[in-house]
Amino acid sequence: MERLFGDRFTLITQNVDGLHLRAGNSLERTYQIHGNIFFMRCADACTESPFPVSESVPSKSKGDVLTPEDVRLLRCPGCGGWARPHVLWFDETYNENY
Ligand SMILES: [Zn+2]
Prior knowledge:
Layout: H1 2-5, E1 11-13, H2 19-22, E2 30-32, E3 35-42, E4 51-52, H3 68-73, E5 83-87
Parallel strand pairs: 1-2
Antiparallel strand pairs: 3-4, 3-5
The structure holds zinc ion (ZN).
């Protein structure tokens, strides 16, 4: 539909898995209003710019101990505070800045 309608097309999605982008929709015309799970952002909001989740983050199971490297990958590169998934959680409201 985006190819057909061009600049008259806008996609608003609650998907957080990037499905529409992988299917060919453009980032410019796709509004992921619940965020994107493949990105993180600063939990203290030192910046409004999300950053990609490192491909080096290993899978963990409940009870696994985090290594110092695991912890480093979960930190905000801007301020060193905790990073969080760039998604809207159940107890949160929309924030137009994100
Ligand atoms: Zn930060």
